[in-house]
Design goal:
By secondary structure, this protein is α/β, with parallel strands linked by helices. The chain folds into three domains: 87 residues, Winged helix-like DNA-binding domain superfamily/Winged helix DNA-binding domain (Arc Repressor Mutant, subunit A), CATH 1.10.10.10; 115 residues, 3-Layer(aba) Sandwich (D-Maltodextrin-Binding Protein, domain 2); 101 residues, D-Maltodextrin-Binding Protein, domain 2, CATH 3.40.190. Helix content is 45%, strand content 23%.
Length: 312
Amino acid sequence: MDIFQLDYFIKVVESGGSLTLAAKKINISQSALSQLISNFEKEEGVELFYREKGRLTELTDCGQDFYAYALKITQLYNDMYEMVRRASLKKKGQLRIGIPSLILRLYFTSFFTKFIVKNNEVKIEIVEGGSKQLTSLLLKGELDLAVLIEPTFLNQDKFETFPLMSDHIGAFLNASHPLTRLKQLEWKDIEQYPVASFNQNFLSYDLIQQAMKAEKVQLEMKFTSSSWDFLMQVTKESSAIALLPTPLHYYIDDDSTMIPFKKPIPFKTSLCRPIKEDYSSLERYVKGSILTCFANRRATLSTSDESELLGI
């Protein structure tokens, strides 16, 4: 097995022998993964897994030793390339990354803090703004990378997009609001109340307008702002309902609550960059670090967390 196939083998073991689960994690077909292991066992004359009715169950003694070596080898491989990347980064310049302020707060504060401490020779400029503004800067070539809200409307022949997180827009209101008796909301439930949301510079404003049209509801957009703190404060002092991304649920106090919609508005984020013939070591390193961080984040998001956000 080459280094990548070793990683595939590790994923199978970490998935409890489930080829279906492992194939989803590494984005290859289940049949290709099964063939990889079967071919290796046949060529080397060994068995890595015990099988029951054609399914992999647990590692054989040989498989356990092979797994231990695979972990060491892949770790050494990663350490080697980390060393090469760090040596290369010392010769590179600055990278400009556009991120909406809310997304920066929700997802990137911890990431960039740790990244800068680990790579103090790297120069990164964070450009904050609404998704529409950042898209414009990306199109003008003034950003190297941008985290944007879907849909990005970027030309797929000129820009690459990499999915990061998938959330929803929910209803935030004060804890004594009459609607808190409901576990989920229909859009018609909030028609009689004033609504607060991000202003027209933000794509979420457009997403809400589209949902209103699709659900045939008329909402009074009484408060709009670029500050989610202000929008949340409005709900505490009135009967207004703030339509904001559900992850903000983890940042509110006991005076506020969040209720999901039965037909929620998707709130998806993607990492975007212009397609070029070649990318600098810094560009590749930062992009890879962000995607790895969010892949791990998605993998560790528990079912209970997802159910809580969706009101299941």
